[in-house]
Amino acid sequence: MDHSLSPNSSSDNNGSDTIEQPQYRRHLGRRRNRQIDSDFGTIQMSSSSSFGNRSTDNVSLQQPPRRIAPGTTADTTTNIPETNVLAPGGWAVNDGTEILAAHRRPLARRRILNWVLHFIKVVVLSIIVILLLVAVGVPVSDNGMPAHAGKYDSMEFDWQLDPRSYLKPMNPNFTQYNVLLDAHLHTTYSDGVLSPKQALEFALANGYNAAIVTDHQTVDGALAARAYAEEHLQGRMTVIPGMEYTCCRIHMNLIGINESVPVHPPSPSDAELKAVIDKVHGMGGLVIVNHIPWSNTTVLPWDAPRLPNHPTREQLLDWGVDGFEVVNQNTVDLRSYQFVQEHSSRLVGLTGSDMHYPGSSYAWTTINAKSTSAKDILDEIRARRTSFLLDASGTRPVQDPPYSQSYFRYAPWGLLGDYFHGYADRSRGMYSFQGTFCQEEVLDIHNTMIGWFFLWLIVSIVVLEILYWFFRWLILLLVRLARRRR
Ligand SMILES: [Zn+2]
Ligand SMILES: [Zn+2]
């Protein structure tokens, strides 16, 4: 755009105005000031391009102000003749009129260009800021977000529930029992949030007097829990060591063992799974198949089971497993329960809270053992004499841990990262607990949503611009009215 004034515009001024084109050009693109000396005072108008070239017209009048078009940018250093350039109520009364009118058209074009450039600058800056937020927020969300409730270690469980007071065993003939067992729970030795000590105290509070601690891939949590129970919970809580054999085909609790069984590979063959079952039997332990409904749940976007290629119940019976988890958390696996009943001479049914967080309890395996020692409880499980109590509503109370301060520190970034995660679905499938995932990663970027984001960004910037100009106009108007009143 040509910012210069047409020489013709000055030639129409009866020679009273002597604008020289070179003088204009010299001042273009700089901080611009204009001083107009008139009969009525000195008007100074400056247009600064500090941010987005929002021109700021500072009008200082030594005498009462005249009506000057708001926002009219004076863009050149122009010495306009002193006489009769401005008059009350208008821009000018004589030659100055033509001069300023001639200014207006190119000025208007330049203001539009400046606004477009300013707008592009704001959009580009906004995008840079957003990309920076993504670059920091997404990694914090992925890796650096502490759990919002990091203070599990300070939790205590000081209530005492007695499920026997309101529940009857699933098998109505099973009225005599001295053991209330949780046959599946996790500690901080795998992905549980409670230490072995806390996990046992939580189980005690919920009415259990026996627990099979089954951390993923290791018996270490169970051994630590057993050591704690023997020292501090004698006669109140019996711990049977175990581990959850966790891979991409099946989760199985290996119970009554004192050392960890190696887990590999992530998707073992039938023969490898059978070898694990045989190995556990060789160690004097039992193999219980966990949560088949959960394992077979269809997961998107693969539209396939969470654990692909899970062995059938018949295969597992054939390979020699000892039983099935018939209740996991609050899910009753009726098919497995009936399968166990159909093969009651070979299979036992157990229940597990699968406790990772302190929440409600739903089921208690009932056993009538000679004593509450681990050996006697295991003997009854081997003899397949169990039933269970079920409260699908879950126990109360449930305790929430206090918020962690480190969560508050990083959450502003992490939650921002969570927000940007919404623009793409990154599905990695079930974790194998061996460093891999059971499904192939799927990345689905929502391009339409990203397009809408930028559209809304532009709309927001336009709205802010309009608001800016409106309030600027309003303030100038109020200032002018206030001065006129004085
Ligand atoms: Zn599991
Ligand atoms: Zn589990």
Taking all Cα atoms into account, the compactness measure Rg is 40 Å
- The secondary-structure class comes to alpha/beta
Ranges with pLDDT <50 over ≥5 residues? 1-94
What fold name stands as the CATH topology of the largest domain?
Answer: TIM Barrel
Order of helices and strands: HHEEHEHEHEEHEHEEHEEHEEHEHEEH
Backbone shape: elongated
Bound compounds: zinc ion
**Count the strands?**
16
Q: Give me the CATH superfamily of the largest domain.
A: Metal-dependent hydrolases
Q: Main sheet, how many strands, which sense, barrel?
A: 10 strands, mixed
**Integer count of domains:** 3
Describe this structure in words.
The structure is a single chain. The chain has 486 residues and is of the alpha/beta class. It has helices spanning 7-11, 21-27, 95-144, 196-205, 220-232, 270-282, 292-296, 313-319, 334-342, 374-382, 405-421, 447-485; strands at residues 32-38, 41-47, 179-185, 210-216, 238-246, 251-255, 286-289, 298-299, 304-305, 323-328, 331-332, 348-352, 363-367, 387-390, 424-427, 442-445. Strands 3, 4, 5, 6, 7, 10, 11, 12, 13 and 14 form a 10-stranded mixed sheet that branches. It has a two-stranded antiparallel ribbon with strand order 1-2. The model is unreliable at 1-94 (pLDDT under 50). The structure holds zinc ion (2 copies).
